[in-house]
Prior knowledge:
The protein is α+β, with helices and mostly antiparallel strands. The protein is 38% helix and 12% strand.
Amino acid sequence: MDEHRNPWERVLAEIQRELDSEDFRRWFSSSSYAGDSGDQITVWIETHYQDTLDRALVALNRTNTLIRFVVAGFGDEDDEIDEDDKDRRRV
Length: 91
């Protein structure tokens, strides 16, 4: 059965075992698989604040600007990551 799931679904199944159900729902329920290039899994994250973000960009005269969210960790090892590794961590 697992072989029929996309890579992101398999990742979600693993992390769901470790997280509190409310944390999992809050942080991952609106995510969806977009692609896998082998060294990078791309995931779409829905924002519940898209209208608010759009209004802020209009107020700043940045109507043709996209906001890109980047996920990063909070460990000491993150200080030593080179730029190529940072690009791989982007979601």
